[in-house]
Specification:
Helix content: 40-55%
Shape: elongated
Structural class: mainly alpha
Number of strands: 0
Order of helices and strands: HHHH
Low-confidence stretches: none
Mean pLDDT: 83
Number of helices: 4
Largest sheet: none
Length: 85
């Protein structure tokens, strides 16, 4: 709806059942996350930008699993590679 802008239209689209991916649309369908979708849909762009920046900062601070104790890169994201007890 607003391809040239970086704003909260994504959340408004979810409310209209216009999510790009099925997994996106599930954010609005799930009672645990739909309040967040509603809040972000009506938040000023400044709130959206601040929340996005905070999320990207958290994402950037994820440690490399191969250097963490017990970490691994999964061959299949739905399963651990092995159980070493």
């Amino acid at each position: 709806m607003s391809p040239g802008k970086f704003n909260n239209q994504y959340y408004k689209n979810l409310q209209k059942k216009m999510g790009l991916l099925r997994t996106d649309q599930m954010l609005y369908a799930d009672s645990r996350t739909s309040p967040f979708v509603n809040a972000m849909a009506y938040a000023p762009d400044s709130v959206f930008h601040n929340q996005f920046a905070a999320s990207m900062t958290k994402f950037g601070n994820i440690l490399d699993p191969e250097v963490q104790e017990g970490g691994e890169v999964r061959a299949d994201c739905g399963y651990v590679n092995s159980y070493d007890y």
